[in-house]
Amino acid sequence: MENTVGKKDKDPKFVHFRGIVKRFGSVTAVEKMDLDIPEGSLVTLLGPSGCGKTTLLRMLAGLEEPTDGDIFVNGKRINDTPIHQRNLGMIFQNYALFPHKSIFDNVAFGLKYRSMPRAQIKEKVKRALEMVRLPGVENRKPAQLSGGQQQRIALARAIVIEPDVLLMDEPLSALDENLREDMRREVDNLQRMLGVTTIFVTHDQREALSMSDKIVVMRDGLTLQEGAPEEVYNRPANHFVADFLGHSNFLPGEIVDQDEENIRVKIETGDVLLAKQRGAWKKGDAVEIVVRAQRFEVHRKKDFAPDEGMNHFAGRIKDRSYMGGEVSYFIELPSEREIHVISMMRTHTYDYGDDVSVQVSPYHCHLITAE
Amino acid sequence: MKSDKWKPWALLAPSLTAVFLLLVIPVCFVVVYSFWLRAPSGGDIPAFQFGNYAKFFADFFYPSLVIRTLRVALETVVLCLVMGYIPAYFFYRTESKLKPFLMILIMLPFWISFIIRTLSWINILGDTGLINHVFIKAGVIDNPLPMLYNEGAVLMGLLQYLLPFMILNIYVSLEGIDKSLTEAAKSLGCTEWQAFKEVTLPLSLPGVSAGCLLVFVLTCGTYLPPMILGGPGNDMIANLIFKRIVGTLDWPFGSALSTILLALLGVIVYTYNRYLGINQIFKTLQ
Q: ipTM > 0.90?
């Protein structure tokens, strides 16, 4: 629980799912889920569609009822609390602004049901609109605003009620690429400023990596890995997580030897690669070496001299694409396996059929159990 | 570049032609007829005079029929609205597998002749009909209840005819409402009922408005339910037109009555659309 944005006295189990199961008929959406969300943190539920992330969020919101298990918010079990008494701010993918109400009435909506004096509502709405950098739009209708502005209004509407937890269901996916980047930073800053506990559902790894204190990677209703972004990215627990986050290469092999520093893995090509010693492996284990596409270095084969302590093997350029900032190569190994390399170099653009040597540090070779 | 502006109109041409030939021209004939004279022999004499219209206003019997027509139409609208909104809302909310089947049940009456459907009420409500028969056999009553040939029976017939129009109009409007709006309202503190009042009801008003107008106009022009299920005092304006034209072959006066009804409905539809019509409601949504 080290990732509570530096607030040590905050409750590390502010939102707490225990043994949550959700079935729709014979389909299991969430299977025996346990999850702790520390107060003030931003936790991302990341996974492909149908992994149960939205269902989990909707159960917390009170829009779905768990088949089994308990949900606690701030130490209180809320399974039986009706949705309108839960005091949670929900943000929907399609904004869900009330089209027939003015922006003021939209933002003031939650306050109206908290029986607050009119003058105070006005003041709070004004402040909320300033917070999302859209002051003075009170009298407009939602349709008169752009998609990004509408999502900011939705954000204002959710935070103005000072919710215990802010729930965001793919809030940025309806926006176009550039706008999404801006909104992501805005959501991030706002969340940190308000310190509101936030659960963010997304299938976009970049959103998850850039804004989360903790990422929960889900598939088929199960948690596959849970941890800080760096941890999940650099030390994926299994094939799915490694594949889902970033451009990963998988080199299947078998552990032939190990010492205190390195593990030696023989891969299909017959080359023996070194991987930094981490965790408990034993000789003969079938493993996959995970290497990020950005970690490989490509050299021309004829003038290649390996650096001390680096892994290296030969291959041939099969395909390449120029991406502007980087060059993407697909390199075929003698074993006919293809690896994907992203090179940041501007020079040395290799061509189809070139013989190359690929070098990678043992530090960047991460081992997972072969599936 | 050649202008393609005519192309959409070409698509519209067949239906425009049909409407023009089969609706606009006959209506013009009717309007022209309304100024003609009727010879004592029964023939029609071309003329331009307002005698037929004067006759309408000279005897309060005729305007009173119009007033009754409008009253019955309003009653039908209210009944259809109350009895139509509830099933429409049910269809919007239900996730039952039976929904398509139930939707077909709504459409089912359209597949049976209007006359047959109206006549069938006689077998249910009549003196020897199903209800009276069962009640007398069961000894609940001695003499048959007079359920037929009154305004209630007429309303029943109208309701059966027009309810599907109302349900479908409201349903289409409800179906267009994003369900996450209700969820958003509830997450902000609304109960189910408050969320309905705040979000669902106002956003379904365009369908309600369209349904009400349709039911009103269709009621004003119908003559079968009053003719089959109504008594002597339940005639509506369309019955009078029917009797004048088909019964006594008095085309000029029948045409004048038709023109008056057409003008009246025109004014009502125009005013309605102006103040709480479909366009107006859509405008407030934006």
A: no
Measured over the CA atoms of residue A81, residue A84, residue A85 and residue A86, the dihedral's sign is positive
Between CA B200 and CA A98 the distance in angstroms is: 10
* CB-based contact A38:A13 (threshold 8 Å): yes
Q: Are A69 and A20 in contact (CB under 8 A)?
A: yes
Return the pLDDT at B14: 95
- Of A370, A339, A347, residue with least CA distance to A359: A339
Mutation target for A interface from B179, B187, B191, B286: give the one with most A CBs within 10 A.
B187
A203 in Cβ contact with A245 (< 8 Å)? no
Strand pairing of A42-46 and A214-219? parallel
> Are A95 and A154 within 8 A, CB to CB?
yes
Contact predicate A76/A64, CB 8 Å? no
Question: For residue A316, what is the domain's CATH number?
Answer: 2.40.50.140
Residue A43: name the closest of A30, A60, A26 by CA: A60
The answer, as to whether pTM is greater than 0.90, is: no
For the segment A301-333, what is each residue's pLDDT rounded down to a tens digit? Answer: 888 888 888 999 999 999 988 887 788 899 999
Q: Note whether A92 contacts B184, CB cutoff 8 Å.
A: yes
Q: Cβ–Cβ of B187/A90 closer than 8 Å?
A: yes
Q: Which of helix, strand or coil describes residue B242?
A: helix
Count of domains for chain A: 2
**Testing the interface with B: which of A113, A114, A157 to mutate, by most B Cβ within 10 A?**
A113
- Per-residue model confidence (pLDDT) at position A6: 45
Same domain, yes or no, for A19 and A35? yes
B263 backbone φψ class: left, alpha, beta (φ>0; ψ -120 to 50): alpha
Alpha helices in A76-117 (DSSP H): 103-112
CATH superfamily of B59-285: MetI-like (1.10.3720.10)
Q: Residue A149: give its domain's CATH number.
A: 3.40.50.300
Q: In this structure, what DSSP letter does residue B112 have?
A: S
Residue A134 lies in a domain: yes
| Sites in chain B below the pLDDT cut of 50 | 286
Contact indicator for B284, B276 with CB cutoff of 8 Å: no
User: What single-letter DSSP state applies at residue A25?
Assistant: T
Mean pLDDT of A108-121: 94
Residue of B nearest to A96 (CA): B181
DSSP E strands in chain B: the ranges are 37-38, 44-45
d(CA B260, CA B34): 10
- A230 assigned to some structural domain: yes
